[in-house]
Amino acid sequence: MVVPETLVYGLVLLSALAHAAWNAVVKHSAEGFLQLAMIRSVGLLIGMALATQLPLPGPEAFGFLLGGALFQYLYFFLLTHSYRALDYGTAYPIARGVTPLLVAMAALLFLDESLLPMQLTGVLLVTCGIFALILKELRVSRGGILLSLGTGIAITGYTTLGAAGVRAVAHPLSFVAWLEILSGAGILLAVLLTQPLRGFAFARTNLLRGSASGVLASGGFAIALWATSVMPVAAVAATREASILFASVISVYVLNERFSTRRLIAALIIFTGIGALAIA
């Protein structure tokens, strides 16, 4: 079945909203790592449920699964540490801001995927809009910035490997399910080995929030990864970085941070870039 590109972009925007929401939950949890572990545990359960209904991805996907899981572990580590070093409204845009161009370069080098002129224009506009958002933030902690930039590199790694994986198998959802299993099992094991009692206590008191965030995280990631099987991975990655706009809205209306004219102009640039991608 051929899926209209406009529908794909709409779903990716929903994925972006889900991503901004669960990241806000992790940032503002008293136990960010345990919150993240609970979210990934939900992903593990969802992945296991899907895996029982689908065939195995096949040996050609094993390397992509392992590499994608390793990059996700790195992402989880850097994400939680960057949130300790910087505010949500700073760490999140920097991490996501470097991703569109990095993914475009990785897709060109490793997936032999080039962009049409309009798509490249869209990626560049999104990137410019993102950096317009974070320009003021470059005066903050150098260590925090490096952690956030490392987070963006990890995102590029698992996005590129995930795109290669879903394209290498007959059933993309099967690849997504097993990646959820591997990434969830790894972080759950880390909690069980280091702080099992605190982990169980946290899960009991945060069951509803953790479960809802886990569904958002797994659903949003599955949509984005599936989208890379039918669209250029750089275009999908750039569109998903609209999550920075949603994060800005969350920071203003939920966290009571100030909304500036610069943010409004940056938002218009990003939406123009997404529009260019959608009509390319």
UniProtKB/TrEMBL annotation:
It comes from the Bacteria. The chain crosses the membrane at residues 6-25, 62-79, 91-110, 116-135, 147-169, 175-194, 206-227, 233-255, 262-279. Residues 9-134, 144-275 form the EamA domain. SUPFAM superfamilies: Multidrug resistance efflux transporter EmrE. It is a multi-pass membrane protein. It is found in: Cell membrane. InterPro entries: EamA_dom, EmrE-like, Small_drug/metabolite_transptr. Keywords: Cell inner membrane, Cell membrane, Lipid A biosynthesis, Lipid biosynthesis, Lipid metabolism, Lipopolysaccharide biosynthesis, Membrane, Transmembrane, Transmembrane helix, Transport. The keyword Ribosomal protein does not apply. Belongs to the drug/metabolite transporter (DMT) superfamily. Small multidrug resistance (SMR) (TC 2.A.7.1) family. This is EamA domain-containing protein. The lineage of its organism: Bacteria, Pseudomonadati, Pseudomonadota, Gammaproteobacteria, Cellvibrionales.
